[in-house]
Structures are given as structure tokens and as C-alpha cells.
UniProtKB/TrEMBL annotation, chains A, B:
<dbReference type="GO" id="GO:0005789">
    <property type="term" value="C:endoplasmic reticulum membrane"/>
</dbReference>
<keyword id="KW-0256">Endoplasmic reticulum</keyword>
<keyword id="KW-0812">Transmembrane</keyword>
<keyword id="KW-0808">Transferase</keyword>
<feature type="signal peptide">
    <location>
        <begin position="1"/>
        <end position="24"/>
    </location>
</feature>
<comment type="similarity">
    <text>Belongs to the UDP-glycosyltransferase family.</text>
</comment>
<protein>
    <recommendedName>
        <fullName>UDP-glucuronosyltransferase</fullName>
        <ecNumber>2.4.1.17</ecNumber>
    </recommendedName>
</protein>
<keyword id="KW-0325">Glycoprotein</keyword>
<feature type="transmembrane region" description="Helical">
    <location>
        <begin position="444"/>
        <end position="467"/>
    </location>
</feature>
<keyword id="KW-0732">Signal</keyword>
<keyword id="KW-1133">Transmembrane helix</keyword>
<keyword id="KW-0472">Membrane</keyword>
<dbReference type="InterPro" id="IPR002213">
    <property type="entry name" value="UDP_glucos_trans"/>
</dbReference>
<dbReference type="InterPro" id="IPR035595">
    <property type="entry name" value="UDP_glycos_trans_CS"/>
</dbReference>
<dbReference type="Pfam" id="PF00201">
    <property type="entry name" value="UDPGT"/>
</dbReference>
<dbReference type="InterPro" id="IPR050271">
    <property type="entry name" value="UDP-glycosyltransferase"/>
</dbReference>
<keyword id="KW-0328">Glycosyltransferase</keyword>
Amino acid sequence: MLHCICQQATWFLLTFFFLKLSDGGKVLVIPMDGSHWLSIQPVMERLHHRGHQVIAVVPDANLLIKPSDHYIVKTFAVPYSTEYLKTELQKLGYKVFVHQPFLTRITETLARIRNITMIYLNNCKQLLYNKDLITYLQDSKFNVVVMDPLSPCGQIVAEYLSIPSVFYSRGIPCGLDAEATKCPNPLSYIPKFFTGSTDHMTFNQRVNNVLFGSFQSMVCNLVYSPFEGLIKEFLHRDMTVVELYSQASIWLLRYDFVFEYPRPIMPNMILIGGINCAKEKPLTQVLWRYTGEAPINLANNTKLFNWLPQNDLLAHPKTRAFITHAGSNGIYEGICHGVPMVLIPLFGDQADNAVRIESRGAGIKLDAVKMTSKDLSNALRTVIYDKRYKENIQRLSSLHLDRPVEPLDLAVHWVEFVMRHKGAPHLRPAAHDLNWIQYYSIDVIALLLAATFLFLFISLKSCLFCCKKCFCKSKSN
Amino acid sequence: MLHCICQQATWFLLTFFFLKLSDGGKVLVIPMDGSHWLSIQPVMERLHHRGHQVIAVVPDANLLIKPSDHYIVKTFAVPYSTEYLKTELQKLGYKVFVHQPFLTRITETLARIRNITMIYLNNCKQLLYNKDLITYLQDSKFNVVVMDPLSPCGQIVAEYLSIPSVFYSRGIPCGLDAEATKCPNPLSYIPKFFTGSTDHMTFNQRVNNVLFGSFQSMVCNLVYSPFEGLIKEFLHRDMTVVELYSQASIWLLRYDFVFEYPRPIMPNMILIGGINCAKEKPLTQVLWRYTGEAPINLANNTKLFNWLPQNDLLAHPKTRAFITHAGSNGIYEGICHGVPMVLIPLFGDQADNAVRIESRGAGIKLDAVKMTSKDLSNALRTVIYDKRYKENIQRLSSLHLDRPVEPLDLAVHWVEFVMRHKGAPHLRPAAHDLNWIQYYSIDVIALLLAATFLFLFISLKSCLFCCKKCFCKSKSN
């Protein structure tokens, strides 16, 4: 009885400290598919547990988005099937292994980016011009939109419904996030995505970083400018996507400085790296996820499964190494459990993620196209038997896990903060109200330079005049 | 009995969550006197409660530093008395009310700064060349130095003892903090101390801000360069104070973005604004702290006391307004309890603090020299009867208090983090390894410009050459 009452007291206190049940609000989630969806799910579940109603709006053809007890999934029709999506994704994977000349690869990559943009744009149109859905969203009186800024659609909805928004992202590869938050981004030590550089660059790498920075701005334009027409059409406003994104109240960013290189951040950027590394469940055997046919020469100590709980597997004390495609979720699970990695990046931010882990001596990066089985076994042997890899990843792990608030609690706090205060305008820097000439003080510098030159000019002229006078005088004498 | 056991369970849980008793470490504190000392005390007390041994090293002549059960105070002899210190401080206060021409004021201020610097420098020498004290510090095997960066002495000790350090500060007025952390500091929207500007500046104010920025760099040099000789002498290293300060593991900064204007921060800058607003104790009467003789015309409803618990007073529900000299501790107590303010700044950062509160519509700033009793009563009437002041300060208060971790817990977490991990090198940006030409990519831009001009020049020459050929050809035809 006594035990029971104390347990109740404990439960009550735990509820008070960790759940702090709030007045239920309404959260609209506009997510992206694939791993992006997997990464946003824990936040949605926790918001549900805290008494909020969570509604996700997604296209009816998708890969991983399933209904759940924790949230309502509202779909809108799109003119393609789930099968089509799967085939496109597989193509993207296979492309990595096709050998192509550099220029063809660039052209094809740009074409693919354009293609994906068009899919996102059309999805967005399908959402915005779905009258029933928009009426439903209007009537629902949401308190906040939580959205993935890979597509601007969520923020267009937020603007239309006049609701504050929280962005949930690993970062936007073309640098739109830095532009939209007015976050300084010195090219001298912050490597651009896809350059493969670390934060310590040679002169050549720094030249490359500056050139690539300009190239990425063009890519940003290629990807996002088509949405500006839609913004004008739907919101009746002339607004660039940067201006649209600058309206975000909070950016929840899925990294920290154990993984990402230290750099400036802005007050509304909240770092929640490692949010996906949930408490592990125990495992009993060692296993291999593999969806194809079993190889004939498979060793007896390898078991094949269609799906495996990766996080639980990494937490197993017998796990010695982690062969990964270097997606950011997986990498954080590796950091979280202190498992050294062999990184075989395929596309997206994966190559950059791999560079980060390798540069910290916590893993070895291999080239998916060029590597041999010998390379793989050598890399595995090295990360397992060279103690420094285990030491380095354990150091990263202990730094990563030593934090005043768990990333999931932090994410939920800030979503609820935005709900409670109807945004976070006190975190918006005045830089948003300046044009780039003002921001970089170019007008001030121009004035000061002009004043200096004028002063020098007048001084010089006066001197010359005096000299002339003296000279003439002495001459006349 | 049951009640008692449940209370015990509650106490146990509270202890677990809030105190989380750690293996005791040793913390060396090198503080500054006055309000700086008052602001660092809660951290020292909490560190003591968490099982650490806390030792403060201070000059034997000081204003507010008293021994306590929570920490050991070690003094070193200085060649002046407490009385001398008090007189100097009073002079500083009276100076505010003396009318002086602009240039005299500037010269006198610079002389006073130089004078204070010399006092700090001599104090530091007294500490460093006190053999017994230094031997004691060496033998004590401290885990961390917590220091006030207004004087570089603490960091010299940290370097000498090879211990990581935590800086505890409101910010260094001349901008040394931004330089030492490599924190971007755009002059277009971040007003410099003492300019009286907000984050929204006119063109003239921006010009002023740039000019004042350069002036402050000179002041920084005036104040801190004398320490460079001491660094060379004592550490046998050629090191500027900026380089010395860049060694800090963590900067605990006593502001947040409810009070300070939103701006970039660096990963090792932890904001703990409001750390001094402790839980209030109840009050029963309204009162006035006043140390002089009671005025003859004192109203019956005013009681005079030598000392008052300001924080408890502000927390009283009947407190309608707060007349303050706009020190940052007091302002945070006002924000914390949502009391509108009449701000009469005297010196230091007080005028800038007052501008911040006034620009947010939560108080009225008066000029201590020019104001009349009518101005004061008008200001008081306005902040009390114009509802917007109360609404604004209450909004600021609710934003300020809505945080995932209490500032004191956050401060203690990071001090202990540095103790556990022997620093925080993973938060150190690679910018520290670049010179300013590299940092601003000036070498890269020069190369790219040169390449562009060369390309244009060759193209032009080729065109001219072709034209000439064609022209000659047509001519010969």
C-alpha cells in the first residue's frame, strides 16, 4: 500500500517535470517523406502525449507516412502513384553507381533537381487548390505549423492561415537557411555542402568554397524561384522565398557541434541534434537487414532480416562497428551509442556527414563506386582494432549526451513556446529590416571614404597653395 | 506517517532532479567586486551545494566580498585600503553630476579608465607574484577557473595552472568578447555600448556606430594592452589579450534576447540572463532604502531603511513601478517580476540598459543631470497609469520566464561540463586558426578578381588582335 502510494507520488512528480500537461492546442504538421518523416515523428508523438491534437497533411502517394494513434493524417490527391515514387527513388540510388563524365553528371543532377522541384511545386498546388482541405485547415484554428523547409509549401499555408511556424530541418543544402535567418556564414571556415571540405581548408579549398557558394546560390534560385509565382498567385504578395522563410518563428535544427563544425548561430536557431536517438530496447542476436535474395556464400554467423531496429542494434554492447550510408539520423545513432563507423555515402548530405565523422577520427569514409571488398574489410578492421576510433567516437558520444535538456524536450518546448506566445518576434534580428547595402554598412563606408578623400584632397590643395605662395614669395624676393 | 514518507520521496526526487549530487570537484573563482560579485555569488553557492569546493581569490581591500559557509575566500595583499576604494567609487558617482565641456569629459573619462586599468594591473601583479598564494593554487589541483573577464588576471592564472576556464560576464563594453569568440558583430544593427542607439538605426546613427566601433577598439587597446607585458613576463609567451581570451572554454553571458537585441552568438556563448532573479520572499510593507538623513518633508507613507531586499520588493503584488539606476541585475529583477521602470542611468552599461527597456515600451529613461522633480513624477505617473507599460513589461516577463532550463541550472551545467570534459574544445570555431585576411576571404577575392581581370584583359587583347587582323586584311584588300 505504502509502496503503491509512493509510486503514485513518483509518477505524479515525473508527470509534472517531464510531461507538464498543458492545455491542449492544435498542431498542423506539413512534413516531407522518407527519412525526413521518420525524424519528425518523435516530436509529433510527444506533442500528442502532451495533450495537443496533431494533424499531418501529406500527399496521398507517399513512401513511409502511415496513420497512427498519435496523429491524424490528412491526405490530398496527387497525380502520381506510390509505385512511381519508389521507382524514381531507386533510380536516384542506382545513378550513384553509373559512371558518367563530369559535365554529364552536373547536367543530369541539375535536371533531376529541377524534376524534384516540379514534383514539390505540383504537390503544393494540389494542396493549396484543394478547396475542402483548405476550408478544413481554416476552420481548424491551428496554433502552430511545424514544417519541413525543404519545400516552401508549409510556410505558404502558415502565411495564408496567419499562424506562426516552426521549421524542422537538418539545414537546407543550398544555404537558404543562413540567408533567411540572417545568420553570418563566413566562407573561410564554414564548408559548403557537397565540397567535401572540413572547417580547416587549404587556400585551394577556400577558393573552391567561395566559387561553390556562388554556384549553390544559383541552384537555390533554380529550386525555389518557381514557388515565387505560386506565392504571388495564392497569397497575392510579391515575396521571395528568402522573405517567406524569414517569417519562421523558430528553426529546430537536427545537429549539434559534436557533429557539425562550430559556427555562428542566430537566437531563433535551436539545435536538437540526436533527437532520433531514443532509449534503446534490448536485443538478443546479431543480424543483417537485407531485402534481396540470400547470397549462397553467406556465413553461418550472419542472419538476414527485412527490417531491423537500427538504434537498438547500435546500442547492443557487442556492436563493434556501423557500416552506414551516412544519413544524419543514422550517424547520430552511431554517435549516441559510441559505435565507430565505416561510411559509404550515396547522395544528398551523406558525403558531407561522412567527412565530418572521418575528420574527427571516428570513422572511415569509402567511395561507393570505387571501393573493393578488400577496402571494406580493411576499413572495418581498422575501425574495430585501431583503438583510437573507438576512443574518438566515445568522446564524441559523451560530449553529445552531456546536455542540460534532452533534444526532444527542447524541440517540444519551443513548439509550445510558439503556441503560447503566438510566435517569437523577440528573437527576430533587426537585420531583416536592412537591405544588403545597409547590412554590410557599404553606404557608411562609402561616406567615410569619400569624407577621408575629400579631407586629404583639401589638405593637399591647401598645402600646394601655401607652398606656391611661399615659393612665389621667395622667388619674388 | 504516510504523508511523511511521501514527502521524503518528493524530497528525494527533487534532490535527484535539481541537485543531482556530483563527485565533488574544485572550483577556483577569480571575481570582480561590486555588483559583479553579487551576480556571481548564486553560481558559487549552487556549486557548493552540488558538492564542489569553491575557492574565491580576491584582493584584501574590497567592497562587498565577505566570507561565507558556501565558499572559501583567499585574499592577497594590495597597496590600498577599502576606504580608498569607497572614495574612488563615490567620486565616480559624483562625476556624473558635474557639468563639463565635451572634450574635458572625454579626456577625464580616458584618464579614469587608465587609472582603473592600473589598479587592475597592479592587483593582478600582487596576485601573480604572491608566492604562497600561487603555490597554494598549484597544489590545489583545481578543475576549472570561473572568472570575470573585465580583468584578464583570471585567464593568466588559468593558463599558468593549465586549467580550463569559464568566463562570467554581462559583455565587455569595448567589444573584446566578440573579438575573442570570433562572434560576428555587424555594426549595421548591433549598437555599440555608449552610443545610446537601438537595433534600428538611422543612417547617421549607423555612421556614428561605425566611428564609435573604431574608437572603442582603441579604448580596448588602452585598457588591455598593459596586461600583455605581464603575460610575457609571467607566462613567457607573446600573446595578445584577444588571444588570451580566445582560450576560454565557455562564456556565461548575463543577458537574453528579451533584454538584449537579437544578434548572432557562438556555440560557446551560453545566455543566462535573469540568473539573479531568485525566488522571492514575502514582504509586508512598502519602504524606501535611503542612507542619508531623513528629509524633513518626508510623507507618512514612506519608510526609510539602510538596506532592502530589492528582488523581494519587486515581487510584491503592490509594487507599481521601479525607479532604478538601470544596472543589469536590477533590470532583470524588474523584467522577472513584470514591474515597469523609470530608469535614471549613472555610468557603465546603465545608459544602454535603459535604452533597451525604453525601446521596448517597458520604461521611461531620465537624464540624472537634467531631470527635474516634475520629470520624475511625470515619468512615474506615466509608467503606472499608461497601461501599455505594464502590458509590455508583463509580455517581456512571460517571454523571459518561459525557458527550458533555469539560468542558474544552465550556468552550473556548463561549469560542470567544463570540469567533466576538461574544457569544451569541440565548441571552438576554426576561425581562431585564420588571420583576418583569410577570415574575410580577402586573399581568395583578390585571386578571383585578378583572374577575372586577366581573363578580360586577354579576351580584349585577343579581340583587338583579331579586329586588327581583319581590318588590315580588309585594308590590304
